[in-house]
Amino acid sequence: MIMAISRLKKGFCSKAKVGTVQFRFAQVFDLQTRLFMVVIRLFATVGGFPMVQEIDGFNDSLWQQTAVLGPKTGLLTESKTCDVAIIGAGFTGLNAALDLAKTGHSVCVLEARTLGFGASGRAGRQVNMGLNSGPKDLISRYGQEQAERTIAMMQNTPRTLFERVQKHQLDCDPVQTGWIQSAVDAKVFGEQKALAKEYEAFGGGLEVLGKEELEQRSGANGYVGGLFCPSAGSVQPLSYTRELARVAMAAGAEIFTDSPVKGLTQTGNGWELTIGSALKVKAGQVLVCTNGYTDDLVKGLKEKVVPIRSVLIATEPLSQKLRSEILPNQVTFVDKRRLILYMRYDRDGRLCIGDHGPMRDIFYPSDFEAVKRRAVKVFPQLASVSWDFHWGGRVAMTMSHLPFLYEPKPGLITGMGYNGRGVGMGTVMGINLAKAARARLDDQESTDLDFPFTSPRGYPFHRFHPLGAKIGIAWASLRDHWQENRGSQK
Ligand SMILES: Cc1cc2nc3c(=O)[nH]c(=O)nc-3n(C[C@H](O)[C@H](O)[C@H](O)COP(=O)(O)OP(=O)(O)OC[C@H]3O[C@@H](n4cnc5c(N)ncnc54)[C@H](O)[C@@H]3O)c2cc1C
Q1: β-bridge pairing 179-183 and 207-210
Q2: Domain 62-178+231-441, CATH 3.50.50.60 — does that match?
Q3: In testing the pocket of ligand 1, which one of 236, 290, 309, 421 has its CB within 8 Å of the most ligand atoms?
Q4: pLDDT digit string (tens) for 122-146?
Q5: What's the pTM value of the predicted model, to 2 decimals?
Q6: Helix H segments across 201-325?
Q7: Where along the chain do its domains lie?
């Protein structure tokens, strides 16, 4: 029976040849949906057959196995009043909480699930320069003065994060050995060189690598060149989250988990949040730090981000020989395409590799086949290693491809939309949210923000985003395939 089911599934989701291009029906119509699995489960349960394994994107991650213990947190059990209420306990919310608590403000963090339950406890852990735009684009969007602040922030993002780790003694396996972004063809390489040049006018930050140098530093063949960012690196993301919570609590912040915020009401002097069915938190300012896990709490906010999924796999600890061939010196690596592939070692020498995933929150073993194939293509030595961990989560994309700092109502501020670069960006956004909240509590203008306040565009027809994202991903995949074939014919 299970064989027949799997053949049936394979049939539905098999590759159809379109000319020379292999195109996955499943990427557009994704017949491996939850519903499909529910029906299959029902049959299997009734028939007493073994079931396809479900993978929990949070609990099955490698980070759960290697993270430090978090501080003790629990449910909110009584109503409270504070200066600032923060919704969401990830990098953004906890960095904001830490800074506000340090300046003596009373802070109450409310998290629907557990510390790092969102993307922060699942991330690929790369800490990089952060934005998908270069200086020229930022100047045209924000104007010279604001853009210069944003550019400086971006250049300093890894430094800001690693300094925080050092200053607060956060136990999160920090490694600052640089980041390589490879170019698949001359066009991409040309764009990378232009970007590095743009940064030179603002003090630099990116170095251009020729083909041989890229091969030498990464161990990867088949690229025409790339970029190197020496200040970048990585952290253990769940440890980083838990450690931020620990130091924020030590500084006086209160953090409540399993405490979803269900309602938000504006009052005469601030906001009232409803937690669960009856408890209230009154706050002068509210920071919404829910990124890809944003729900309907703030009207219209969910429509401003599309939560696509990213999946990650981790190998067994690799031998010293393999580690000297694949990403020697622990450099972090991105294969730059429309659909990127990203890689990094953990502290035990497991190679962690990430790719785009299906548009749902429960994963199945078949969701990880494509990333394994891609990884082996870049590093053929991986063909015989075992893959010990599989997990994934939501990445918040925005229309502008940039994060936003946004105040939909006075005293209700949000920062999100990192487009897959939220380890560093979430950190600096949290710092900026704290600055903005502090200024408003003191009735002052915030003049020193790295991001401007903007009114981000929402996605039209957001309700249909799962289908739209699948079509977009399938189209991007097709274009990457064409680009690679064109490149290899040269
Ligand atoms: C698989 C994966 C790999 C990634 N890899 C990288 C990488 O290598 N480098 C990089 O820079 N970025 C990476 N990212 C992106 C990065 O992890 C995120 O941008 C970042 O973690 C966002 O942090 P955050 O604190 O804003 O949001 P999150 O960590 O997502 O936290 C939001 C929290 O809000 C809570 N919440 C939502 N609604 C409510 C409510 N009503 N009440 C209370 N709580 C609520 C959620 O439970 C959640 O815990 C990756 C993301 C994923 C999923």
Answers
A1: unpaired
A2: yes
A3: 290
A4: 998 789 887 778 999 999 999 999 9
A5: 0.90
A6: 211-218, 237-250, 320-325
A7: 1-52, 62-178+231-441
